[in-house]
Amino acid sequence: MTDKPAGMTLIIKTVCRLLVGLILLYGIYIILHGHLSPGGGFGGGVVLALGLLAVLLAYGREETLNWLRLGLLKDLEHASPLAFLLVGLAGVAWGGAFLANILSKGRLFALLSSGLILPLNVVIGLKVGLSLFLVVLAMAEFDLDKGAEE
Amino acid sequence: MPIETWLTFLLGFMILGSIVALEIKDILSSIVAIGVVGLAVSLAFLFLQAPDLAVVQFLFEIFALIILVRTFIRKDFHVMEKASSGRWIIGFTLIGLAAVFLLSLKVFRVLPPFGEPLMETSRYYLEHGAADTGAANIVAGIILDYRAFDTLGEVTVLLTAILGTLTVLRFRARDGKGGGR
Known about the structure:
The complex is a heterodimer. Chain A is mainly alpha-helical. Chain A has one domain. Chain A is built from 4 helices and no strands. Chain A has helices at 10-32, 41-67, 70-95, 117-147. In chain A, 37% of the residues are buried. Chain B has helices spanning 3-23, 27-47, 51-72, 87-103, 105-110, 121-133, 138-146, 148-177. In chain B, helix 2 runs antiparallel to helix 3 (51-72) and helix 7 crosses helix 8. Chain B is an all-alpha fold. Chain B has a domain at 1-79. The interface between A and B is large, with 61 and 47 residues.
């Protein structure tokens, strides 16, 4: 396998560069429409992770980390459960119960409806996507460091 | 064709795929067979009218395939030695499975028939879900409104998993080379 820092061939890199935006957009669409159509935070988060994973596989670790800021990803990833907790505590403060749905429910089938379900979907999507991507990144780093010993 | 026929066909397909995954020598073919089983699970969810689960199962299957292939492809796992399990282990397993099956026959009789669940809480969710939560997708309404506390638990599980992975892999990488990034 010739995937040292250089990544894969030019064809794969080009196709990946063209497609990754669409993949991420599709993931965001699934997350944002989680309360209207099948999908939601978990499914959309996995789509995000797969999009980032395509970049990682095509370009290798170094270039991916030049493109993405690893510290920011980690901070977002660790902050999303806290955001979930804060939403729940807001429910305690204004609704009287943990995770009470305090925003207005809106009109059925509208994008901005169903109160807190939309922000919770966004939080879960971030969490799932970044978690899966970071796990793969950690495994890739581990492999690379072992390979460098030869 | 009734849905039970499709499901039986899919289940047989999954059992076949699992046996192939266990018995085949080449590790890459084995991984592909596992992926076939997972995609059949996703199809089964579609037949049972659970598109949310089907989407998540499908995507996770692809993700797991990529991880498995990437982990195993670069090591020398291509040829596996045949495990020298004695024939009596298989016999014991079969006897145990048969015993569990016979003991659980009584439970099967109590279960509701296929396609007619009990619908005690679910009926309430289906009737009041849209008005209570304002979500058109009842699955999102259940997991993020009625049972949002459960979902918090799942997010905590993910957080623990990623912290454990990062910690273990980071320590090993430092041991190997003296500090990665």
